From TrEMBL:
Pathway: Amino-acid biosynthesis; L-histidine biosynthesis; L-histidine from 5-phospho-alpha-D-ribose 1-diphosphate: step 1/9. InterPro entries: ATP-PRT_HisG_long, ATP_PRibTrfase_cat, ATP_PRibTrfase_CS, ATP_PRibTrfase_HisG, HisG_C, N-reg_PII-like_a/b, N-reg_PII/ATP_PRibTrfase_C. SUPFAM superfamilies: GlnB-like, Periplasmic binding protein-like II. The keyword S-adenosyl-L-methionine does not apply. GO terms for molecular function: ATP binding; ATP phosphoribosyltransferase activity; magnesium ion binding. This is ATP phosphoribosyltransferase. It is found in: Cytoplasm. Residues 265-337 form the Histidine biosynthesis HisG C-terminal domain. It is an enzyme of class 2 (transferase). It comes from Tuber borchii. The keyword Glycosyltransferase applies. It catalyses: 1-(5-phospho-beta-D-ribosyl)-ATP + diphosphate = 5-phospho-alpha-D-ribose 1-diphosphate + ATP.
Length: 344
């Protein structure tokens, strides 16, 4: 099939081709009834029931394609959006891929604070965010008289920072092309930021880094590598992003609305219970609903039935509380899909 010619009138929607976000994205597409058939090894799949083509790309590249306007919609991490500095519009958080970007150092080593890493070697996949972080730290150090550049020199790590406004060639030479071309900001900082694409946690043990900047969710990877966190640069989660001028705004709206419906359905359950009218005000404080609870008069005098959306993560506590208040016949129902105009 001539795929390229089939793409011209389709909305392009980028999805991580592998890694931590991939499976959740496929679930989301299923929930939104975006049907497709992906041929073996092909990174483009035409949707069967919409004028959409899915493009399977590395999560890190998705903001770039969407920012350039080549792709209309995409799913990636907020960390990748921040790192790419692409001009994209964030439509909604998707509720998965939650983790932190943290500065990590050897657990048994001497370093306790990020500023002690000034002038040393840092390995990361997030060279722009790392450069910005250390540039700020160095500036703060310089203001408070704690000159990291000087410290870098004393430790024989070059330091080499040029005069203000000059390009620091020593750093440029030793920093990856990705950091330089993407940021243009590495000049002037004495901390050496080096790019690696994966297994960042191995860098300290291999003697390549004094500290790393990497994503942490459970902390298992960090622990297994003998590292500890000393600072959090950002917290991140998966997001739906949109280009500034999508090719088919009406279809973008439809997809956005469907995805929001799936997210809301995943996030909430429907809680229904019976309660005597005199306890209603207290009970509805516990289950205020997304907009407001639905109250229905029961045939039995003085009793009502309440129906409310409740955040799934707090449902057990809510049920305990309702029972204490005197609610009866408390039922919890899963929501399989939803539509609403409000936020998630
Ligand atoms: N441990 C994690 N827990 C939750 N979300 C994560 C985790 N690691 C990464 N992510 C999110 O997933 C995005 C993609 O990371 P991932 O490591 O899966 O990338 P990848 O390089 O495309 O895949 P792989 O590591 O398999 O090569 C990250 O930018 C982040 O938003
Ligand atoms: O805190 P944890 O739950 O252990 O997760 C953190 C790990 O997950 C990510 O890597 P991933 O396993 O996706 O592989 P990668 O190192 O090849 O990027 C991240 O880069 C960490 O290494």
């Amino acid at each position: 099939m001539d795929l390229v010619n089939h793409l011209s009138d389709r909305l392009l929607f980028a999805v991580p081709k592998k890694g931590r976000l991939h499976e959740n994205c496929l679930d989301l597409l299923r929930g939104a009834d975006i049907q497709f058939h992906r041929h073996n090894r092909l990174d483009i799949a035409l949707c069967i029931n919409h004028r959409i083509a899915l493009v399977f790309l590395p999560a890190a590249d998705i903001p770039v394609f969407v920012g350039e306007g080549r792709v209309d919609l995409g799913i990636t991490g907020q960390d990748q959006v921040a790192e790419s500095q692409a001009g994209v519009e964030e439509l909604m958080e998707l509720g998965f891929g939650k983790c932190k970007l943290q500065v990590q150092v050897p657990e048994k080593g001497p370093i306790q604070e990020p500023k002690e890493l000034i002038g040393k070697n840092i390995v990361t996949s997030f060279t722009l965010l790392a450069s910005e972080y250390f540039a700020k730290l160095e500036a703060e150090g310089a203001r408070s008289g704690d000159d990291g550049e000087e410290r870098g020199r004393k430790e024989g790590r070059g330091g080499g920072g040029g005069r203000e406004g000059e390009l620091n060639l020593d750093v440029l030479e030793k920093t990856t092309p990705r950091a330089v071309s993407r940021t243009g900001k590495v000049d002037g900082i004495v901390t050496r930021i080096k790019y690696v694409g994966g297994s960042v946690e191995a860098a300290c043990a291999l003697g390549v880094a004094d500290g790393i900047i990497d994503l942490v969710e459970s902390g298992e990877t960090m622990k297994a590598a003998g590292l500890k966190p000393i600072a959090t640069i950002l917290t991140t989660g998966a997001v739906l992003i949109k280009s500034k001028h999508p090719s088919n705004p009406a279809l973008v709206k439809t997809i956005e609305s469907r995805i929001r419906g799936v997210i809301v359905a995943k996030k909430y359950v429907l809680c229904t219970y019976n309660i005597s009218r005199d306890k209603l005000a207290v009970a509805t404080k516990v289950t205020p609903g997304k907009r407001a609870p639905t109250i229905t008069q029961l045939e039995e005098e003085g009793w009502v039935s309440v129906s409310s959306m409740v955040d799934k993560s707090s449902i057990a506590t809510v049920m305990d509380r309702l029972e204490e208040i005197g609610a009866e016949d408390i039922l919890v129902t899963q929501i399989s899909n939803s539509r609403s105009t409000g936020g998630v």
